[in-house]
Amino acid sequence: MSVIADRLKNVSISASAAMTQRARELAAKGIKVVSLSSGEPDFPTPARAIEAAHAAALAGDTKYPPMDGTPALKAAIIRKFKRDNNLDYDASQIVVSGGGKQVIFNAMLATCNPGDEVVIPTPSWVSYADIVKFAGGVPVAVPCHEQAGFKLRPEDLEAAITPRTKWLFLNFPNNPTGAACSRAEMAAIAEVMLRHPNVWIMTDDIYEHLVYDDFQFCTIAEVEPRLYDRVLTMNGVSKAYAMTGWRLGFCAGPKDLISAVSNVNGQNGGGIATLTQAAATAALDGPQDLLKERAAIYKERRDFVLDRLSEVEGLRCHRPEGAFYIYPNISGLIGKTSKGGRKIDTDVDFVMALVDEHHVATVQGAAYGMSPFFRISYATSMEKLGEGCARIAQFCKDMR
Ligand SMILES: Cc1ncc(COP(=O)(O)O)c(C=O)c1O
């Protein structure tokens, strides 16, 4: 009898983590790998957050924290939701967890019964489907087509909802496409959801501050207040404040749901590190200028990569509104053979040949549920982006 539980049978290892590992292995052999696979800001954590953690440690703030978050951090989160999203919550409507990922994990464990369906606009972050399966739910992918700018069309959403649907996930700006929803597009999604009062909505707004060209971010509970009581609004400090290693995410929603999520949170973690909470409080309450400054840098990088790659025969690049990813279509290269003799039948073949022959790490579209594409993360320096794009261009040019 296997020691491994059945619930892990369908849960996979994250493909982006697998590619990052492959890049590390090549680097360990002395090979200069350009890594465009990791969804992690290359900026430092704001100094005031680090100083706040240091001060908290010296002040003896090193004991067990409250399960659902410190009062100071919850107050900062309440201010954040008001300031950025015009949403009103009180402290009983907030839970703090170990990263956005744990928020979603806890929420699904707290709410999914076996067979409950979770509608996931796809392409989507690799972890959603696995988390849902882990919790006993059934992920239901709804395609967000390239021709529709990778947005969720109301008619596709409507068609995906069944009497078993428990949740709809939203993630705009999106990982991996960078697509974001305008107010009108979000209102159209909300209109569908008003017709389905038994379905809850989890919105993952982790890329909220990464939008470009004056694009205005919006979130569904604000766009349609009649949905407020069925929306779990998730966010965190990982992407906006470059605090991926601190592990802090949070969510807000109706009290009963939050108390169930908080229950799971307490059982599986016992609250989040006190120093991390002090750092996150300082980041959320501090001057917010760095968000715009960094967004301007990401925009430059996005434009740079788009310029370089749109000249490459065989690639088709959609212009994303936000996040720090580009999701080129490679259908023009499927069926060809790389210079190193690798047949490119799928996007997995493409990214594996690219990393082995030209040492550029990216992630296959298959990991996000839509092929044939690959994901480039431009959360890295211009120098690396320039080198990476040149190598990708050469790799594609050499295909026969
Ligand atoms: C869409 C999305 N949600 C959540 C996360 C995870 O955030 P955290 O690092 O706060 O767990 C990621 C990280 O890649 C992501 O892309």
TrEMBL record:
<dbReference type="InterPro" id="IPR004838">
    <property type="entry name" value="NHTrfase_class1_PyrdxlP-BS"/>
</dbReference>
<dbReference type="InterPro" id="IPR015422">
    <property type="entry name" value="PyrdxlP-dep_Trfase_small"/>
</dbReference>
<dbReference type="Pfam" id="PF00155">
    <property type="entry name" value="Aminotran_1_2"/>
</dbReference>
<keyword id="KW-0808">Transferase</keyword>
<dbReference type="GO" id="GO:0030170">
    <property type="term" value="F:pyridoxal phosphate binding"/>
</dbReference>
<keyword id="KW-0032">Aminotransferase</keyword>
<comment type="similarity">
    <text>Belongs to the class-I pyridoxal-phosphate-dependent aminotransferase family.</text>
</comment>
<dbReference type="InterPro" id="IPR004839">
    <property type="entry name" value="Aminotransferase_I/II_large"/>
</dbReference>
<keyword id="KW-0663">Pyridoxal phosphate</keyword>
<feature type="domain" description="Aminotransferase class I/classII large">
    <location>
        <begin position="32"/>
        <end position="392"/>
    </location>
</feature>
<protein>
    <recommendedName>
        <fullName>Aminotransferase</fullName>
        <ecNumber>2.6.1.-</ecNumber>
    </recommendedName>
</protein>
<dbReference type="InterPro" id="IPR015421">
    <property type="entry name" value="PyrdxlP-dep_Trfase_major"/>
</dbReference>
<dbReference type="GO" id="GO:0006520">
    <property type="term" value="P:amino acid metabolic process"/>
</dbReference>
<dbReference type="InterPro" id="IPR015424">
    <property type="entry name" value="PyrdxlP-dep_Trfase"/>
</dbReference>
<comment type="subunit">
    <text>Homodimer.</text>
</comment>
<dbReference type="GO" id="GO:0004069">
    <property type="term" value="F:L-aspartate:2-oxoglutarate aminotransferase activity"/>
</dbReference>
<dbReference type="InterPro" id="IPR050596">
    <property type="entry name" value="AspAT/PAT-like"/>
</dbReference>
